[in-house]
Each structure stands twice: as structure tokens, then as C-alpha cells.
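Need the bound structure for NDP, inputs here:
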Amino acid sequence: MTRAFTGKVALVIGGTRGIGAAISRQLAADGAAVAMIHRSRSGEADALLAELQATGADALTIAADVGDPVALNDAIDTVIARFGRLDILINNAGLAITGPLADYPPDAFDRVFAVNVRAPFLAAQKAAGVMTQGGRIITIGSIVADRMPGAGGTLYAASKAALAGMTRGLARDLGDRGITANLVQPGPIDTERNPADGPNAEANRSPLAIRRHGSAEEVAVLVAYLASGSAGFVTGAVYNIDGGWSA
Ligand code: NDP
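Answer from helper R.:
Posting the output first, comments after.
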């Protein structure tokens, strides 16, 4: 049976836990070969790799801190060497350093922007160099780029807001090659970093029209649509999946 992504190669940066793991599972289920970059939690990465391979998927995990441009570049080289092509790039890894404005450590800005902005830019630049017609670049931002729920998130919000401009630029840079770039901005999603039963959960849900946490799988379905051939006329777009926070 031919599935939506049969013959396609996807790279999911931050693809082994949370939202990224759901995206990896969805793309693999739809027939893609999936490479996943994670930072350090190799036990979970190996477990997901085994899970995907057990379904017959061609998959690979690479440990690399994408805040380090050399490590990121080497990891993408490994993916291209292994699979020979790259069709779908998912920029999902993110870093949140939050707290009172006066208390940010001196290197907080550089660390957050290295993972949340520089890595997606460098990955997109490199991936675009090997993508062909139909290539897809999808970045996971956050609804806090548009709506701040309270104090303490200045740096994280600033970094996620930069992704909309990047995405529009990529859309213009790559449109004539038939490569699309889109941004997905989730609201609260039930993952380890934002559990639906955690201490901040009720506060996180209070601004929503649909007052529950979203699931990683709901985000993955939207990402899979944007990665598909059906979404070839969608580029430079920002998709909020936020339970109506923006309504
Ligand atoms: P995480 O941000 O914790 O993502 C976990 C995955 O990213 C793991 O595979 C992890 O590897 C990898 N990762 C994290 N940092 C790096 C790094 N520096 N280099 C390489 N890999 C890295 O979990 P979520 O699923 O919650 O979030 C995913 C994305 O969604 C983030 O960009 C986040 O900002 C965004 N988001 C999340 C929301 C939520 O409510 N959960 C809401 C809005 C946006 P390892 O397992 O080895 O640590």
C-alpha cells in the first residue's frame, strides 16, 4: 500500500519525546523514513527507534545538542549520508529559560536563541540545499509569540516570535523551488514540560476556549497535513493550535 510519505525522508529535530515523538510516529505511520535528533535522553530515543522499526519503518536516532551549530551540521550530514535525500524538516526542539527579568543568567539569551532560532535557521538553510520540489520545512513555535499569559516568559516568547519572520522569509526564498515553510504555534500541550495535571495546568487552560490541554498527537496530525503533498499551496503561514487562546 502506498502511504502519503512513501519514499520521503523526514528529519524531526527533537523527535524522540513529547510533541516531536508524536510527529515522528505520525510521519513513520504515513510511510516516511524518519531521522530523529535528540539531545541526551538516549534511553527514550532508543525505545522510540525500536518501536518505529518494529512497525517496519526505516528510522534513525542521532544525539546532538542543536544549540551547537557544528553538532547540528554534523547530524544533518549523517542523515543525508544515511538516507541520500531529505524531504521534510521538522524544527521542534525548544528551550525555555523563564523567570523574573532580573534573574536571567547572563548567557540565557544566547542559549535560548541558539536552540529556538539559530538551530531552525541553520537546519532550514542546510536542508533547503538538498531538498527538491515538494520539500517541506515546518517549525514548532508557541502561541506565546502572540499572547503572553503572565510574567516570566520574555526570552522564550521573543525567541518563538522570531520564527514567524523566519518562516515568511523562507517561504519567499524557497517558493520558486516548490518548497514550503510553515509555522505551527501550539498552546498548552500535555507533555513532560507542561503536564495536564501539573501545578500550572489550570492557569494554562484558563485563557482557552476549549479548556483542556491539547495532545501531542493533535499537533502531529496538523504537522503531517502541512508536510503532505496536499498542502503544496500553503506556505509562509502560521497555524495556531491553541484551544482558541487567540479567539
Ligand atoms: P521538549 O521541548 O522538551 O522536546 C523534547 C525533545 O526535544 C526531545 O527529543 C529532546 O531530546 C529534544 N531536545 C530538546 N532540546 C534539544 C537540543 N538542544 N538539541 C537536540 N534535541 C533537543 O518537549 P515538548 O514536546 O513539550 O515541546 C516541543 C516543542 O513545542 C518545543 O519547541 C516547545 O517550545 C514547543 N511548545 C510546547 C508546548 C507545550 O505545552 N508542551 C506549547 C507550545 C510550544 P532529549 O529527550 O534527549 O532531551
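Comments: The radius of gyration is 17 Å. The first strand starts at residue 9 and ends at 13.
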